Every structure is written in structure tokens, then in C-alpha cells.
Amino acid sequence: MRSKCYLNFLLVVCIGILFYSCKRSESPSGSFDILITNAKILDGTGAEAFTADLLVRDDSIAFVGDVDERKITVMKKIDADGKILSPGFIDAHAHGDPLVDADFLNFLHMGVTTICLGQDGFSYGSENLTSWMTQIDASGLGVNVLSFIGHSTLRELSGTDFVSVPTESQLASMQEILRQGIQRGAYGLSTGLEYTPGYFAQAPEMTALVQVVGENKGILMSHMRNEDDDQVEKSINELLAQGAFAPVHISHFKVVYGKGAERGRFLLAKLDSARQAGIDVTADVYPYTASYTGIGIVFPEWAKAPNDYKKVKAARRDELANFLRERINKRNGPDATLFGNGDWRGMTLAQVADSLAIPFEDVLIDVVGPEGASGAYFVMNEDLQTVLLQDSLTCISSDGSPTMHHPRGYGSFAKIIRHYVNEKQALTLADAIRKMTYLPASIVGLEKRGAIKVGYKADLLVFDPKEIRDKATYEEPHRLAEGFEYVIVNGRIAKSPDEKENYRYGLFLRKE
Ligand SMILES: [Zn+2]
To answer: 297: CA distance to ligand 1 center in Å?
Structure first.
């Protein structure tokens, strides 16, 4: 009796061991390109870190688990030594011309392996997307690039330009270029309703275009009509109305001269109730309290194209001066505008006015003009922006480029870890990584990227979060970020501590 019991027990144990070892994925054999051992993996989904090894073969993740090194041959071994291994970051809103700045080192050095271009209503190559993409494929890219079709660009291509209501054939032409664009690989439509000519568009035009976006499974990325505190709700409503036809997304979500965490929570609650009602709405945020754009942002519409600025200046000078004085003061005064290019680069509007001994509104009217400069505008509130950043459906963007004179183009993703995770503890590292990987990938509909899973593309980072530094400042905006030891793009090492940097392993990503 007793020995039978014992045998039964042994049988159960054996079956148990068998079952357990089958369930654990067995260490693979064969040849691989990269082995990363001893890594603390944050897989991008927001899950806690776990320790494992990872194998890359060709451009993809081939295995995650315990690797028996006796069974494999590998070209390159990286001992992560307990450091973080995460997916490469995905920048939901970026700028730059891939035929001019193809290395995109500013992005690579802050851990970004994919950037989303064609933003704010303006896109390159939209008139012949296929040939533009082919040209970029041939010249190579430092990071992966995907693009949206710009709404203002559609207005230009269709001859609609500055007219508020397009003719039937102009509208049909915009729809057709958009439809073809998405079918040839663009991820959706971007708008910049704060800029001309996008500014002139009204609801029926937007509906007609967003319907095309929805039918082709794209997304609407929106630089909203007006981000000022007293206009932002109206702008959100306008966007949510388009959410009936396609997923909608608020680009660089901010409230200009709004203040306080409560204000941020109020706006997030508004988005939440839209979601309850079935609207797919998300947002991205960059981690700085100054915006950056053309100085035209402070001028009234009637002083900008297609109107003749010289004539406006002659006919309505006092009115223009009053407008600019009020608008600048509302936006935290002339100290809060910092010129980023031209003769006055590095000086605030207040400093330029002082040096010329004229009022700041005269500097804007006579010296600069609506198209004469770009600048950084310190118009945001840290408490409010932090609340927007923390929302579970907000991802991270830089809104930066290799050439822009704002630190966000070189620092954003490093600053999230250095400041918002390490110092301020406004985000956990797992959550921050999710906002920079899996979340933006799901928002834009990017497949097989943004997570560490077998079969996913090997866009990977190895880093010690304590070593991450954003070095770019408003004075020196082009200093590269530091601390990302290995940056792997499509299974190739683009940046490593011991080797000369190799780049242009990025690809132009086409929506399937
Ligand atoms: Zn924008």
C-alpha cells in the first residue's frame, strides 16, 4: 500500500516537472545576431520589470527568457549588467526633413528610434508619396520615420489655399490625395488649425476629410485651433466632434497661460467623458513650459497672409500695436518671448526693446514682422502640464527637430526620465516607458513595435536610468542627451559605448 502511494507521488512530481519545463520556453539553439544578458526588462506595456536575456535575429526579437549560451552562436553579446532593457522610444510628434537631416542624431541620443512626421498640417512629399518614400529609402535614415498627410498641404495642393469654403472639386481633390496617401502608407491626417491656411477650414470640410481618415483606418493628429486658456475648451469640442468619424489625437496638449493642476484635471475629465461616449481621443505632451513657433502666433489673423502686411501696418497701426501689447502681456509679458533665430537669437523681446529703446510692440511691428522670427514662449504652467503628462492616455512627444532652437528637440525623452521619474517622481519608470513606447505605437497604429515581445522589431535601448541626462538648454539647445548606452534600430546597433557610431539603420514605415 505504502509503496504504491509513493509511486503515485513520484508520478505526480514527474508530470509536474515535465509540465513546468514545457511551459517555460526552452532555451533556443542556433545562430543569432545579438544576445543581451542580465537585463531588467521593461517591456513597454507598463508591467513591472523582470530579469531575462534577449536574443535578436535579423531585425526582430527572437527570444526572451533564460538563454543557455552553450546552445547558441552569436555575433555580438551585450552584458546589460542589471540595467534596463526597453523598447526604443516613439516620438508621437516630431519635425525635420528626412532628406536633409537623415541622421537624426538628436533623436537617437535621447533613445528615440521612431519619429512621427508630417505634423501640424504640413507634410512633405504628399503630392507623390510613393516616390518621396522611395527617395528616402535610398538615402537612408538614422531612425524609423512615419508620416501623416498635412491638411494645410492638402489645401495648397488642391488650390484651396486661403479660401474658407473649398469648391466641390477642390474638396474632392483633397479627399483623393488624402485617400491615396493613407493607402500608400501614411498613418492619417494632421491638422494645424492655428496656422494658415488650415485656419480657414470650417466643419464641413473637416468632416469630409476625417471621414476619409476613418474609412482608411487612420488617425487625426490635431494641433488645435487655439490653445489659449479661454479658447482651449472650444478647440477641444471642435476636435471631439470630428471624433465621430475617426480616432482623434491632441498634439502637444497644453494650455497657454492657464494655471494649476485643477484646470488640467478639468480638461482631462472632459476627454474622459468623451471616451465614455465612445470617442477615441488621446494626446501627447512635451516636457517643457515654453512653446516654440513662428512669431506670427502673436499677430492677429488680419495682419497675416493672404493680407498684405505693409498695407495693414499703414492702415491699422494703432489697432495692431494695441493687439500685440495685450496679447504679449496676456502671454506673460515681453520677458517670456525668447527669439530663437535671426539677429535677435538668444534675446528676449524685452531685451531687444531695451537695446533699441523702443516699446516692444514697435519691435514686433517694425523690426520683426509676422514672418520675421521664431521664438520660445514661456506660456505654460508646470503644475497644469504635469497633470496632463500623468494621464494614462497621454504619450510623450518632443515636437522638436534637429535644427530648432528649443531644447525639446534634443532633450525631451531624457528629461522625462531625469526629471519626471528620478527627481520629481511624477511617473514611475515603467509608466514613463509605456508612454514613450507601447502607448504611442497603439495610438498611431504602428504594428510590431513599441513592446518587447517575440516577433516584434528589435528597436531596443539599454540604459541605467540614473545616468540619463538631458543636456540641452534654451541657451544651448543643440546639446545631445546622454546615458543611453545601446540604441538598437531594426536589430542593428546604432549607438554603443565602445564602437564608432553607425547610423542609418532606420526605415520609412508604411501603414499596412
Ligand atoms: Zn504643433
So the answer is: 11
